[in-house]
Amino acid sequence: MIKCHCAEVFFESILNVVKETNRPILEVAREMGAADTCTACVPDMLAFIEQELEGQLAGNTNH
Prior knowledge:
With 63 residues, this protein is mainly alpha-helical. It has 3 helices and 2 strands. Strand 1 (3-4) and strand 2 form a beta hairpin. Helix 1 crosses helix 3.
């Protein structure tokens, strides 16, 4: 799953706002209308965004 089908909001869009604002994932998602109706997307959304954020942090290490 790559988006909240109820709200038609892509996880990538939520990720971008989370990165820009450093706000909690579910707070941002719900403000965008996602993750609030049936909530079936929540596990996939959280996994996707957390994986992307971890990858971003790993890529920013200086050795």
